[in-house]
Design a protein that fits this description.
Layout (H helix, E strand, L loop, with lengths): L5 E7 L3 H5 L1 H8 L28 E6 L9 H15 L2 E4 L13 H18 L9 E5 L3
Parallel strand pairs: 1-2, 1-4, 2-3
Amino acid sequence: YNSVNGIILVHDLTNKKSSLNLYRWSLEALSKDSSPTGIIVSNGDYDREQFAENSVPLLLIGTKFDQIPENKRNDVLTRTAFLSEDFNAEEINLDCTNPRYLAAGSSNAVKLSRFFDKVIEKRYFTRDPSQVRVCAFSVSM
């Protein structure tokens, strides 16, 4: 993935393995070691230094938010919070039955717009503007 200007990682919030694979996919997209030696755990137990110099905008999209029971939502959302923090990434969790989750003016629509603003900014401040790409991965297992 040469000259990546933005990364969108889509994962299934109802599938723990999908959320934990976000780390592996982000490393692959950033052209770093795609076979990390450690096991990813929900508290972010990995080498954060690998991401310290990341300048590529990242957007995490969790799907099936509507299928998580209210009393378990907080636990599920902490699985991805460590990665969005380390990357300074926007995170959107979608209720797939409710189109208002991406309605104009909603917090998710603002996050999406902010992400694309960062991608455009990165694209126009790169040395070789002819190399523009946004990678999108679906991380469901």
